[in-house]
Amino acid sequence: MGSLWQLVFLLEPAPITLIITAVAVTSGSAFRALSHGKEMERNHDLSEASITLDRSQALMIPIMSSFSLILMFYLFSSVSQFLTGFTAIASASSLFFCLSPYINHLKSQLGLADPFVSRCCSKSFTRMQGFLLVACFGVVSAWLVTGHWILNNMLGISLCIAFVSHVRLPNIKVCAMLLGCLFMYDIFWVFYSERFFGANVMVSVATKQASNPVHTVAHSLSLPGLQLITKKLELPVKIVFPRNLLGGVIPGGYSTGFMMLGLGDMAIPGMLLALVLSFDHRKNKDPVTSSKGHKYIWYAICGYAVGLVTALAAGILSQSPQPALLYLVPSTLGPIVVVSWIRKELMELWDGSLTNVSDKAHPTDV
Q: Does residue 186 have an active-site annotation?
C-alpha cells in the first residue's frame, strides 16, 4: 500500500485527461441516447428502435460476459483476426452514427441540397451520408494501419455512444439488478480469477493485442510498405492514454505504458445516466409532476466522477489493477436511489411507471 502523498499524481496530465474524457463520454452517451429516441419518435422510424432489456436479459449479460472472457483468455490468438475485422466494421458503423447529427446540422445551417443517391439494407443514403461513410471507413483504415492510440480512443468512444443509444434500461429495478451483477462480476474477475485460472483473467484479456489482418494480408502478398503497417493492434474496447502524456509521471516506475479504462466502465454507468436523463425529461414535460431541485442526471454525473477518481486513487495506492465498477456502481446508483427516495419519486423510477420518450423501443432478444 502506497502512502497518501502519491495521490498527488492524480493531478498529472494522463489521469486528468482520462477522467475528463470518461465523464464526457459517459454523460455525452446519455444525451445522445435521449436525442436519438426523440429523433426516432419524430421520424416514426422503427428500423433503429432501441433494445430495452428485461430482467432475464440483464441477468444474462454478466453470465455471457464471463463466458466470453474465458473464451478470450484461452483462445484469443486463434480468433483475434476475426475480432479485429468485426470490430473494424462495428467501429465504422458507430462512428457514422455519432457523426451523422453534426453533418445533418451543418447541412441544415448551410441550406445544402443532399439528394438520395442509393439504397442499401432497406435504408436510403444521401450523397453526404455516402461521403461520411467513406470517411468513417477511412478512419478505421488509418487505425488498422497505424494502431495509433488516439484513433483507438475515437473508435472506442463511438462504440460506447452507439451502445448506450441503442440498448436501454426500462427502470431502476432492472438497472440495479444489472449493476449489482456486474459489480460482483468485476470484483471476481479482477481480484479472484487468479486463484482459479492461474492469472488475472480480466487484466490479461484487457492487455492482449490482436493480430492485424491487414498486416497478414500485406505480408502474404509481399506488398510494399509492409514496415509501415502495425503487426499488433489494441482493440478499441477501452480508452488508453500514455502514462507519460505531456511529460507526466506516474508512481511505481511506470514511465512507459498506458493508463486504460474499459468501455464497460463507461457504457454501463452510461445506461444509468440515460435512464435518469430520460426520467428528467419526462418529468419536465409534465408541469404537474415536474421535479423540484436539481435533476437526477447531475447527481449521476457527479457520482460517476467521484467513483472514477476513487478507483484511480485506489489503483495508485495499491499499485494494482482495480475493478472500476466496485466504485462506480455505489457512487452512481446510490445518490439516485437516496435522492429519489427523499423526493418520494423512487417508485416511479423503480417501476418506470411514466411513459418513456422511446416507448417505441421494444424488448428484444439480445
A: yes
